[in-house]
Amino acid sequence: MYREKEYRFTITGDQIKLLCDAKSSDHTFIKHQRGSYIVYYKLVNKEDLTELYEINSYAIYEGDIFQVTAFNGGYEITTSDQELAYNHDMKRSDKYAYTLFVTEGDIEIYEEKIPITG
User: Quick check: 5 and 24 in contact, CB under 8 A?
Assistant: First the structure.
């Protein structure tokens, strides 16, 4: 958390690079554009943050827990568990992953906040 707002970030040594889009930025963020991709960033010290944490999103689908990502107006649930994938008729998306596209009504989403210290 930086100034009571949540941002995506990367850690570079003792500094944190906050990342956001245009509507979440202010005049202190620097615009970076590569092709059509635009991101705004700002370097801050760890001491400037009130909290630093990782958020992992999960979905409960038909009683089982999966990793989840928002995707094209719906959600993509993912697992590396072959038996779990078979039980839910998931498609193999790479060597170790199986995915299934679902709607918001099919799943219950929850987030796990893991504090980052040090």
Answer: yes
Give per-residue pLDDT as tens, 87-97: 999 999 999 99
Which is it for strands 108-115 and 98-102: parallel, antiparallel or unpaired? unpaired
Nearest to 1 by CA among 35, 70, 50, 68: 50
Nearest CA to 53 among 10, 118, 114, 4?
114
Q: Strand, helix or coil at 84? A: helix
Question: Whole-angstrom distance between the N-terminal and C-terminal Cα of the chain?
Answer: 16
Amino acid letter, 64: D
Sequence-separated (6 or more) residues with CB below 8 Å from residue 70: none
In tens, the pLDDT along 21-32 reads 887 778 889 889
95: Cβ contacts below 8 Å, ≥ 6 apart: none
**CB neighbour list of residue 17: distance below 8 Å, 6 or more residues apart:** 9, 10, 11, 41, 42, 43
